[in-house]
Design brief:
Rossmann fold, 7 strands, binds S-adenosylmethionine
Length: 159
């Protein structure tokens, strides 16, 4: 598979995964959490699909496309550990988290996912979903939409 095809597969998985999760959480109350603003592409898709939900965003830098800057009161700029702790202090209740942190170095990315999982879990409402590029721990892994190859994108339900 060429890198271009691999990129298409990743983008399709992100779109299908977010769409599926947005529909699945529809009956539940709670906010959305974007972990990794980056260029703002997935944030833009989340806000398009979930226009009535508050979307919290964490990133150590604010450098998205100018059209994708989150409202200041919903953007937590800093290291994930400290920002997740701040959200917990504020009593945030998350029904859908999209985990898109990563250095592109598999071992480091897996270790970071494992380290941050226990900080994400207490924010989640029961039955809430975490959609992730990286493996996480402490959640029930569930099947996502049929269009996504298993393990291309990961889907978890909060206990
Ligand atoms: C792959 S990019 C996110 C791409 C984005 N979701 C998009 O669609 O454009 C990962 C982002 O996560 C941020 N990041 C990675 N690890 C982080 C950490 N531990 N704390 C805060 N931000 C982090 C990086 O600064 C980067 O902007």
């Amino acid at each position: 598979m060429s890198r271009l095809e691999s990129m298409r597969r990743r983008l399709t998985a992100q779109i299908d995964g977010i769409n599926w999760a947005a529909e699945t959480i529809a009956p539940l109350n709670g906010d959305v959490l974007e972990l990794g603003l980056g260029n703002g592409r997935t944030y833009d898709h989340l806000r398009d699909r979930l226009p009535n939900r508050r979307i919290w965003v964490i990133d150590r830098i604010l450098q998205p496309h100018p059209s994708c800057i989150p409202p200041a009161e919903c953007f937590l700029q800093g290291e994930a550990d400290a920002m997740l702790a701040r959200l917990a202090d504020q009593g945030a209740r998350i029904v859908l988290a999209h985990y898109d942190f990563g250095f592109g170095v598999k071992d480091k990315d897996v270790a970071e996912g494992a380290r941050l999982s226990p900080l994400i879990a207490p924010l989640m409402v029961p039955g809430g979903l975490v959609v992730s590029q990286q493996p996480l721990i402490g959640f029930e892994q569930i099947a996502g939409p049929d269009t996504i190859a298993p393990d291309r994108y990961l889907f978890y339900r909060a206990p």
